[in-house]
Amino acid sequence: MDIRVLQPSDGDLILKYEMARLARSEPDENERQFKMWHASWRQESLDHYLPLGWSFGAFHNGALAGYFLAQTQLFTRGLTQTLWVERLAADEAQVEAELKDVAERLRREKHLQRVLYSDANS
Predict the structure, then answer these.
(1) Alpha-carbon distance 74 to 82, whole Å?
(2) For the whole model, what pTM was predicted?
(3) Among 17, 32, 71, 91, which lies 20 to 30 A Cα-Cα from 24?
């Protein structure tokens, strides 16, 4: 497993990954379109998060196996510096655990006080 910082050029890869996940869970095309409009991985979100350098992807044999979109926030819940993870997606529990470990190591490395994860699943 190779884990690396995601680049703006990875946006299409993430969209393809998420569209495949959505197709597996939602058979109705109209419902998929509606969910895509409100998804945390929509194009506008990727355009915001990917250039910041806080988002990571896990790759297995060159294919995206999971990722998270993140940014730092100041003065959240009484803490001075927080790593906010807007979206964490993985096909396997092991990949999810490794990505959470990356977020925690990043927090320590950059002297942030906490990692907060969004409650949203989309």
Answers:
(1) 6
(2) 0.89
(3) 71
